[in-house]
Amino acid sequence: MPKPVVAIVGRPNVGKSTLFNRLAGERIAIVEDKPGITRDRIYSKAQWLDRNFHIIDTGGIEVGDEDEILMRIREQAELAIDEAHVIIFLVDGLTGLTPADQEVAEILRRSKKPVILAVNKLDDPSKLHNRFDFYELGFGEPIPISAGHGTGLGDLLDEVIKHFPEDDEEEYDEDVIRVALIGRPNVGKSSLVNAILGENRVMVSPIAGTTRDAVDTLFYKDGQDFVLIDTAGMRKRGKVYETTERYSVMRAMRAIERCDVAVLVINGEEGIIEQDKRIVGYALEEGKAIIIVVNKWDLVEKDDKTARNFEKLIRKEFPFMPWAPILFVSAKTRQRVHKILDLVVAVAEQHAMRIPTSTVNSVIEDAVVMTPPPTDKGRKLRIYYATQVSVKPPTFAVFVNDPELSHFSYERYLENKLRDAFGFEGTPIRLYIRQKT
Ligand code: GDP
Ligand code: GDP
């Protein structure tokens, strides 16, 4: 399921970044690579009770004259409305209500998104009544918090998650393969989508959703239904284009959450940069099947070693996914474009593959015989049995005498043995080492 997005909006200095850091619970988050943009954290994953979500910090307003600041506040509030499912409207309970707060309120009122009003900096219980000043903003009961001290956040988040979209919209049938083309702007995602669709004379029906922020294209080829999740089509409103671009990684993340197969598109002319790794790292974390497509291959000057060298570079830069197939294509000349869907179907099958328990166990038993498990302080890891517990990605539980005795390197060895036996091309697999009860 795609995770809901929560945006923190408010005038400068009310404590948005402080709240963001609290909710993120960590200081690192994905940052934007673009020069000229504040290298701020912009979004992060967060969790409350059993709900996972993304938070966006719309902060980072530079100092400027009053008009400039007001303009930026407006822009950011509008962005938050576009991107978020729930908005936390943050105000400063020590300073009290200001015209800039009114400005933000006016924009938020026009949106149909749920807005939760939080009054920050109420560290001192004797100031709690300050929150009543903010009733007149018209967003209901103001929730008192202190982002600095971390108080009131539970009440705030309880209110926030009440407004999350229902989890029930599993939108497509199990057997529809959901594909997302991910990658930086300008690598050729849209061109590839067009080339793929053109190639297949497909029946195309774009579907715009309410809680999803991408346009989906349903199509059909050789008896197989596909959905293309297109994030590139999301660019709108020229005015805020640059700022919107800050959220392109966020969109890629949300597309990844909804897909079965993530197709990472790399520009063959430019090579690999940090952002490519982050995006694909997220696909891996989410357990998605992955294909690497090197586009604009027509622009690359080649000899007989070029493809092999590029492949080596990819393997070096993405050492955590040696199983991901690589394809060199050109959306322009359509060279090898037809192979993309064939590969998508192949890795989707591997991603959904189920292996009978007896077969899993004979592979594991053989592996254990060939290389026995490690010993730790005289105690030996004993493996009793293994079974596949789920698909997408294939996930195995390995039952042992004591999980503490297991080592990453031995788990990697078992994973490799499973791959030798069953393939699993293009998909991550997971091993959970469990105590036998
Ligand atoms: P932003 O501009 O809205 O992102 O605000 P910041 O998070 O940068 O915070 C602005 C100032 O308010 C900083 O000096 C923070 O330390 C301070 N601040 C943030 N939260 C609290 C709080 O809960 N209590 C108090 N007393 N100060 C806070
Ligand atoms: P996106 O931002 O990733 O969707 O990228 P676009 O599909 O908009 O492509 C960006 C630019 O690269 C456009 O000018 C395309 O015409 C060009 N482009 C895309 N694919 C290819 C390709 O395979 N070869 C060449 N030469 N140009 C391409």
TrEMBL record:
Signal peptide: none
PROSITE patterns hit by this protein: G_ENGA
Residues in EngA-type G domain copies: 4-168, 177-352
The keyword Oxidoreductase is assigned to this record: no
InterPro entries for the chain: AAA+_ATPase (IPR003593), G_ENGA (IPR031166), GTP-bd (IPR006073), GTPase_Der (IPR016484), KH_dom-like (IPR032859), KH_dom-like_a/b (IPR015946), P-loop_NTPase (IPR027417), Small_GTP-bd (IPR005225)
Alphabetical list of SMART domains matching this protein: AAA
Gene Ontology BP terms: ribosome biogenesis
Residue numbers binding GTP 1: 10-17, 57-61, 120-123
One Pfam family in the UniProt entry: MMR_HSR1
Domain of life: Bacteria
Record has NAD as a keyword: no
Quaternary context: Associates with the 50S ribosomal subunit.
Function: GTPase that plays an essential role in the late steps of ribosome biogenesis.
Protein name as it appears in the record: GTPase Der
